[in-house]
Task: structure prediction
Amino acid sequence: MSGVFAPAPGRAPMRSVVASQIRMELTLTARRGEAVVLALFVPLLVMLGAGLTEATNVPGDDRLAFVVPGVLALTVMSTAFTGQAITTGYERSYGVLKRLGASPLNRSGLLFAKIAAVLGLIVVQLIVLAAVGVAVGWRPHLEMLLPALGVTVLATAAYSGLALLMASLLRPEATTGAATLIYVVMLAAGGIMFAAPDLGTAGWFLLPLAAHAEALRETLSHGGSVPGAIWLSLATWAVVLVTAAARKFRWE
Amino acid sequence: MTDEAVELRDIVVRYGDTTAVGGVSLTAGRGRVLSLLGHNGAGKTSLLQVCEGFRRPDGGIARVLGLDPMADHDALMPRLGIMLQSGGVYPWATAGEILRLFASFAATPLDVDMLLDRLGLRKFERTRWRRLSGGEQQRLSLAVALVGRPELVFLDEPTAGMDTEARHTTWRLIEELRADGVTVLLTTHLLDEAERLADEVVIMRSGAVAATGSPAELTAAAGIDLLEVRAEPGLVPDGRLADFKVVETTPGEYAITGSLDAATISDVLGWFAGAGAQVTAVNTRRRTLEDVYLALTSGEKVYR
Result:
């Protein structure tokens, strides 16, 4: 019976380490499926409330063309930022991150796995919301799907970076409070239910949510292309926030 | 670069104004079991945190498998097995999922089913972490530490919260690790655990090393500690026994303490003979690791 524990250390290929971690993140997400469904409740309410009634003032004649892309952008923020910040904060307080830090999974592997898993969840949520939007009369330009997906990936990376950064800097209770507050403020002032104050191009750099929503409107609702300033804004946010998250990331 | 598994030199760890570890040096040779023994708050876990690369020491140099635990974290982790003191697992994942996740991180992991069986976790394979008892969580943490076939394992109070049976299973497992060439560094406040498992014991007191040695060396240095003699009750020692402390613990049972060796024991027994006593039993007792530990950690000699 001797020799069972004879040392043979080594890391599995990084690709399969990360794939395992993504699978675990998705399994745990599916396990709290009711929370994921509930998270769609607010965006649906906003979409139907602001899209089908005259409750708010929106620019243009086509209310759905304005509201639906905004709701999609809001959902990306809700899942990639608010949800992820809260989950990661608690994972740290449970010691899960420390345990992972004591394993062959390195920090860039973990950050990549988290962003990839949350992107998977977001794609599912967006398909559901877009389907409801189409059912009530939204007519998206599907030929512009690719650039729309591109800005969505950048936005997801930026929000995830901010979420992981906050979870590294704040205690879990503070992370939960701050992430929820930012979500509510953005819901109100982010140009989703009604037009945000027009800050021009500067606004796109200050408010990634407004920039993402505008890019989705331009492409999906109007069949146009993404303004260069929005590409630049979202790419900058993504690079800055993901880099900061990787720098400041703490296992403990 | 050394060939030792762990080498710490003058390690200092501070939390604000509190010094948790105040200049500790120690060496763990490859393939050996080293036990850090001390009360809670003696600095054991802080020292382990430095070895695991979770904390940068405020002073001193740490080398683990010849590497810097902070700077070489990514290169070091696949070679280590780390059992943390508590928690550290997704509360909603099952025991089987957790162990398989960590197995999948390793190039040549142990057989997960074998580990589940060995640690008595088979029937909890589909149980979520938060529903496991403290002892079951500990066993799963141990399995997670071992699954990657590490060459060096850090076990922070591995048997805390385990029942007697699980404790013995764990001890046998650690003995088997040693036999298979794995280096083990474990912290404990259980003396029988240290005495049974460790090749070398490092006794820590308030962040410093109080004594180092094998369990046999630590107890042998103290020599024979107690001489028990049974004879008639009521004997009164005279000046010949002035160098010793003689107590009649119960009528006819005498406990003699002091500097005891073959010559002085012969003097003591000579006194009993001279007093015309009928000696019916003589017994010597060596100090146990517990006596040594209590004496060192309380700062005074303790006899029993």
Q: What stands out?
A: The first strand of chain B starts at residue 6 and ends at 15. DSSP finds ten helices and 13 strands in chain B. The two ends of chain B are 45 Å apart (CA to CA). Residues 300-304 of chain B have pLDDT under 50 and may be disordered.
